[in-house]
Amino acid sequence: MTLRIVVGGDNAGFNYKEALRKDLEADERVEVVADVGVQDPQDQTYYPNVAVAAAEKVARGEADRALLICGTGLGVAIAANKVKGIRAVTAHDSYSVQRSVLSNNAQVLCMGERVVGLELARVLVKEWLGVQFDPQSSSAAKVDAICAYESD
Ligand code: RB5
Fold first, then answer.
1. pLDDT tens figures, 93-116
2. pLDDT by residue (tens digit) across 10-36?
3. Staple 87 to which of 59, 106, 148, 151, CB 3.0 to 4.6 Å?
């Protein structure tokens, strides 16, 4: 199974977004990468606008997952989580990245360019591609409980 990934970030996440997009494009587990910007490090588009654009692609079923980068990885996660059906997390360690999928069925991984080293971020994204949520697992009911708090 291959993944359709959408990447995005603000100017503070531009360098990592570019590097990680190239890694994703070269990974055989990735079917296609869509880039919602920013495309220029001088672009001052606010991080919530980029994050929501990416999250909406996932929510509409146009992508399986999103990778979002800002300075901290925090603002993009907060914004992406405003989109109904989206579970976005900020994670900079291997265990949390894995559990974000296995425990939380999070479709959106957020990282901070000012927080984590680029080489670690690259390794974490590779690991992220290798984990899949199991809807038969004991975590499924807990994810359903999250979803139950979403209003129509
Ligand atoms: C820069 O605007 C910085 O605040 C942003 O990239 C992000 O870290 C916010 O959470």
1. 999 999 999 999 999 999 999 999
2. 999 999 999 999 999 999 999 999 999
3. 106
| Length of the chain counted residue by residue | 152
Q: Is residue 138 classed exposed, middle or buried when 0-12, 13-18 and 19+ CB atoms within 10 A define those classes?
A: exposed
Mutate to test the pocket of ligand 1, among 16, 52, 76, 82 (most ligand atoms within 8 A of CB): 76
Q: pTM for this one? A: 0.98
Domains of the chain are 3-148 (3.40.1400.10)
Instruction: Output the CA 70–ligand 1 centroid distance in Å.
Output: 5
> Does the C-beta of 48 come closer than 6 Å to ligand 1?
no
* Nearest-CA residue for atom 9 of ligand 1: 75
Give residue 11 CA to ligand 1 midpoint distance, Å: 9
